[in-house]
Amino acid sequence: MCDVFDLDELEYSDGLSAEVIEEWDSLSHIRFIVAVEKRFGFRFSSAEIEGFSKVGDLVDSIAAHIA
Question: What pTM did the predictor assign?
């Protein structure tokens, strides 16, 4: 997340969202999703991506994919 959003540091919480991270715009959102997909070796569906309103939603989806 720090690399994608170009942050020096970030305190993680499941509730992090675009409302909390100023650098999180539509382009960085796409870059973030692509980085996660590359890191874990799978692709999210469009419906999954649209359902991510906070980082915790993304984490839950990752867990479901790798389980």
Answer: 0.86
